[in-house]
């Protein structure tokens, strides 16, 4: 293929970043780097060492295709089919939410509680209700060498994705995937139950960014009229599934921590402390 005059890897990256920025993208530099890498099949090192290399017409065309998808509102994680969470590159499908950095707060809180209890090296049983790509559960399994994880989801496609991710990171024999609504099909007692359930009030979904509204599965977002439907179901289920001294840690949306704590108290669970805030200072993990 004939090279495109004047477009090097580096100049193409800069041009795309400028284009994304002027379209209002607030992660234009990072997005441009990831999209150039994907279009050209280059990792970070390859992009640096090949910065002055000229793009072929094929590469330029491929990059333009990806750029247009991003400009039309598709998140980079969807375009790549991969999102890193807790250092694990997770495969995504249309049935799974894109894991958010905020959700790492749930993992952090769960590990703090287990470690303070001296339980991190025990053969823990952990359940992740509405596991999606398996993000929270797999992050926990990566930190807790003797734990076994049970991930539930109403979407069998999501469970296939989670199972593929588990196999990829070498956790297949420590993870069990169960198709059900939150904890409805679980039996036995769990030392830790975690969940990032849908919590957006139904009426607010239309106002979300296009990246979320048009590309995340609605079932992973829509928490009913007041956003709390999933918590009502999963907190009362969890109260019957925890070991004595077991922990429940859930992600909440902005402004929901008080309501969710009240639901936990009403189910006979006692708060382990104030909610843990995410990096933006929003109370995010209630336990
Ligand atoms: N954190 C997601 C968002 O606001 C929502 C995910 C959820 O409802 N659990 O985009």
TrEMBL record:
<protein>
    <submittedName>
        <fullName>Peptide chain release factor N(5)-glutamine methyltransferase</fullName>
        <ecNumber>2.1.1.297</ecNumber>
    </submittedName>
</protein>
<keyword id="KW-0489">Methyltransferase</keyword>
<keyword id="KW-0808">Transferase</keyword>
């Amino acid at each position: 293929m004939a090279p495109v005059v004047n477009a090097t890897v580096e100049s193409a990256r800069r041009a795309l970043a400028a284009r994304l920025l002027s379209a209002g993208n607030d992660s234009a530099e990072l997005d441009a780097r990831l999209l150039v890498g994907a279009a050209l099949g280059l990792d970070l090192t390859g992009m640096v060492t090949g910065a002055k290399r000229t793009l072929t017409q094929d590469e330029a065309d491929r990059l333009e295709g990806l750029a247009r998808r991003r400009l039309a509102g598709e998140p980079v994680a969807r375009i790549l089919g991969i999102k890193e969470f807790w250092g694990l590159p997770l495969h995504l499908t249309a049935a799974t939410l894109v894991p958010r950095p905020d959700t790492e707060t749930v993992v952090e809180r769960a590990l703090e509680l287990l470690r303070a209890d001296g339980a991190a090296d025990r053969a823990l049983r952990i359940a992740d209700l509405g596991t999606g790509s398996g993000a929270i559960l797999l992050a926990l399994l990566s930190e807790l060498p003797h734990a076994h994880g049970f991930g539930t989801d109403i979407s069998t496609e999501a469970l296939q994705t989670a199972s593929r991710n588990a196999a990829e990171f070498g956790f297949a024999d420590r993870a069990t995937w169960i198709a059900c609504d939150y904890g409805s099909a679980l039996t036995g007692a769990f030392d830790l139950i975690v969940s990032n359930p849908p919590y957006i009030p139904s009426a607010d979904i239309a106002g979300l960014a296009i990246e979320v509204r048009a590309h995340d599965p609605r079932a992973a977002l829509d928490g009913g009229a007041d956003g709390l439907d999933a918590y009502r179901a999963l907190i009362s289920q969890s109260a019957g599934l925890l070991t004595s001294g077991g922990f429940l840690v859930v992600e909440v949306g902005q402004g929901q921590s008080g309501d969710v704590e009240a639901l936990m108290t009403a189910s006979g669970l006692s708060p382990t402390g104030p909610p843990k805030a995410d990096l933006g200072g929003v109370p995010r993990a209630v336990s």
